[in-house]
Amino acid sequence: MTHELPKLPYALDALQPHLSRETLEYHYGKHHKAYVDKLNELIPGTRYADMTLEQIVRAAEPGAIFNNAAQVWNHTFYFLAFAPEKGSRPEDALAAAIDRDFGSFDAMKEAMSKAGVGQFGSGWVWLVADKSGKLEVVATPNAATPLTDTGKTPLFTLDVWEHAYYIDYRNRRADYLTAMWEIIDWQIVAKRFAEVV
Ligand code: MN
Predict the structure, then answer these.
(1) Neighbours of ion ligand 1 (CB under 5 A)
(2) What distance in angstroms lies between residue 185's CA and the mean position of ligand 1's atoms?
């Protein structure tokens, strides 16, 4: 099957000032698209040719097919959890789980920022839930993704590759991570959490 760059449910300038149109043009329009195009180049004639994206990520050996498939999945998961700023916060069961497992919403944000700043080089930081709904922050290097960990369901992710923030924040990764709290769509995160518990 042919994999496609997902359509974004917002305009390229809709996440400003937190993520600029230029960042979206490059990060979504060039980096994310390049992973999709490369994956489509690599899979014809392989055992991955007819698999879904998730199946490829879970089945692929370390190497180019895994890297490109996982980066397509990770970026889609990242971009689809944003919405133009509306100051939403976790509510109901998700808010209760955050309070239970981190102490407070602020403590969860702090744990996520700390993991993101502490990730050496390129990678991702994730909020994940285990099968009982217990929440945890994990960081993964390069293209690695908790999708390959059958015990963990990712709820949202922040990309800490430099290409995610260098246009808008230069080397200030911590400032980029702080700004992302303004555009996370907690209704989408709650929907993902509801599928676990
Ligand atoms: Mn990226």
Answers:
(1) 159, 161, 164
(2) 19
Compute the distance between CA of residue 18 and CA of residue 177 in angstroms, rounded to an integer. 10
- 184 by Cβ neighbours in 10 Å (0-12 / 13-18 / 19+) ranks as buried
**Residue 59 CA: distances (Å) to CA of 45, 76, 77, 116:** 16, 19, 19, 27
| 10 Cα to the center of ligand 1, angstroms | 18
- The Å distance, Cα 13 to ligand 1 centre, comes to 17
- Helices 173-180 and 105-118: crossing angle in degrees, nearest 10, is 150
Residue at 68: amino acid letter: N
Q: Give the Å distance between the CA of 150 and the centre of ligand 1.
A: 23
Residuewise pLDDT in 10s, the chain (197 residues)? 999 999 999 999 999 999 999 999 999 999 999 999 999 999 999 999 999 999 999 999 999 999 999 999 999 999 999 999 877 899 999 999 999 999 999 999 999 999 999 999 999 999 999 999 999 999 999 999 999 998 999 999 999 999 999 999 999 999 999 999 999 999 999 999 999 98
